[in-house]
Amino acid sequence: MSGLNSxxxxxxSGLQATQSAxxxxxxxxxNINTPNYSRQVVNxxxxxAVYQNGQMYGQGVNLTSISxxxxxxxxxxxxxxxxxxxxxxxxxxxxxxxSTAFEDDGTSGLSTIxxxxxxxxxxxxxxxxxxxLRTNLVGQAQTLVDGxxxxxxxxxxxxxxxxxxxxxxxxxxNTLTAQIADLxxxxxxxxxxxxxxxxxxxxxxxxxxxxxxxxIQAFEDDDGRLQIMLESGAGILVAGDKxxxxxxxxxxxxxxxxxxxxxxxxxxxxxxxxxxxxxSLGANLDLRDNIIPxxxxxxxxxxxxxxxxxxxxxxxGYAKDGVQTNNYFFTGTVANNGLxxxxxxxxxxxxxxxxxxVNAAIKSDSSLxxxxxxSGESGNNANAKAxxxxxxxxxxxxxxxxxxxxxxxDAQRFATGATNYENLSTAxxxxxxSVSGVDLDEEATNLMAYQRGYQACARFINVIxxxxxxxxxxxxx
Length: 477
Fold this sequence. Notes:
By secondary structure, the chain is α+β, with helices and mostly antiparallel strands. It has helices at 4-30, 72-102, 110-126, 131-188, 197-213, 279-315, 352-355, 360-364, 382-389, 395-436, 440-476, and strands at residues 40-46, 49-52, 55-58, 61-68, 216-220, 226-230, 236-239, 242-243, 245-251, 257-263, 270-271. The protein folds into 3 domains: 4-69 and 440-476; 74-99 and 165-275 and 409-429, no CATH class; 111-155 and 291-395, no CATH class. Strand 7 (236-239) and strand 8 form a beta hairpin. The mean pLDDT is 92.
């Protein structure tokens, strides 16, 4: 049989293995509330055997590795869901405030002020020479202009707010990707694949934070390093232990809003503004560049339709004196269908709301309102009726309804999306917790088992020690 010294080594290997296992159990228990912590387990194996006196004798136990229990597919699904959740939440928060401003309460809503403006021409048609009705019409026109401008400005403020957030979020992305790259370097140098479980957990937590900012795709290479790229494929954020850098630069081509560039190493910067799709950063870019400008475009088209239609009829009508004509109701130009220079369908009437104003001459003298349709007939109401009839086609009502309903639909869609993705994210995280999380009952059982194992190994060593002493004492006599 093998010698007593060999038996002592066997007992020692058991002590060392169970002590290490107890340390792992303690590490699990103390990290039960640590976000993204993956439960660690010890992997034990027989130390092998030696041939002696015609027999094979075991040499104890080896602790081959300590590994974390994790599911990469779940991690990927969670990061993608978090991106969409934060994207929907960010859009929802902004659209909710927009939706409130466009709600029609029957007194000051957009459809009401448009209707009241055209009703002012209907009222004037009933008594074209009435000064009070003319003054009222000017007031309704100014209310319309103010209402369009205030809503347009509110949308601009939402755009500006989204743009302001972009710079800070770009800095957050850079901080996170740099930390992930550093952890990639530490993981690549681990003694065995999966050995540095704590670094992997820290990296997982950082990836979740990054996912809330931008939509990403991630995969591990053969060295365990996480490679991360934008979900759209527009650029690589992390390649091994190297992190790319995002920069937010005010771009005159974007109205001095931020352009987002990505720089990898010594390569020239790449514009990835349109390639950041989800997360709060992607949502802010979408709000700034697509969603809010879409609402503003509808306001511009509504204002252009009203101004163009009213101006063309008003220009050919006659004022209260039955003589004066060729006068625009809203500020405009003859060569452009009664719209300000540069405001055309070619640019989707961009800037029309900001250019809209009631003719200053009419504001100071309401008798210049061209209610008459014929020269020399001060009581004629043909032109006032014709202008009122512009609203009877339903064009403007349809435009207003389309805008308001579109905003409401978007608000509901983003709110529903945020809720659905939050529920999905919670379900996936619970699933990950069931796979990777610490179970105190399980750890208590392991603690007891390893404690008994340690005690047994200690008892075994004590027996070998007694035999050794007995052998020495007996042969020493």
